[in-house]
Amino acid sequence: MSTPVDAEQAWRDLQRIRVPQERVYDEVERSAAGGSGTIWTTAALMWLFLAGLGLDLPGWGVGLVVAAYIALLGVLAVLDNRRSRVRLHHTRCTRRMFGTFVAGAVVTGGTALLSGRLVDPLEPMPASLIQATVSAAVFVLFVGPTSRWAAGSARGRGARTAGAGAAGAGR
Fold first, then answer.
1. What CA–CA distance (Å, rounded) separates 147 from 152?
2. 2, 60, 84, 145: which one has the fewest Cβ atoms less than 10 Å from its Cβ?
3. Whole-number pLDDT of residue 4
4. CA torsion, points 124, 130, 136, 142, in degrees to nearest 10?
């Protein structure tokens, strides 16, 4: 006992569902392509943090600087999340997005550690300024292009899922 299906109505329903989905992907791509303010702010915070570590602070001072740095990054993440008009469920994050996040952490952290080792023979203040500049530059050069590349994978994944659902509905 199957109910008759009006093909025209089914097509209109599919289009009504697809348009908001496309708007979500447009917002993801827009935020990845145009949200460079957060990248520059994060790079500036990183630069200040790494440059501040060259001041030869006591142990409690380093702890205070680390706590302030983590708190400021948290505030920046919250503000950036509130600015976004789209709330995505966690399953919308693709493997490419997660891989890009991990690769960015490895590249930026590795650069900070390697540049720190290379400038060890220098005086602490100039060494920390060089380390901060190199690390922030690598962060900016890596994060911008890779976040745009990773955001493009969300649309492709959604189109495959929608296509699979439409193919399954035709049976």
1. 9
2. 2
3. 74
4. -130
pLDDT above 80 for 16? no
Longest CA pairwise span in the chain (Å):
83
Say what percent of the chain tops pLDDT 90: 5
Reply yes or no on whether the pLDDT at 143 is more than 70: yes
Q: C-alpha angle 67/41/152, rounded to 5°?
A: 115
Those residues with Cβ within 8 angstroms of residue 132's Cβ, 6 or more apart along the chain or in another chain: 46, 47, 48, 49, 50, 51, 54
Render pLDDT for 19-53 as a digit per residue (tens, 0 to 9): 666 666 666 666 655 566 777 888 899 889 888 88
Residue 146 · residue 99 · CB < 8 Å: no
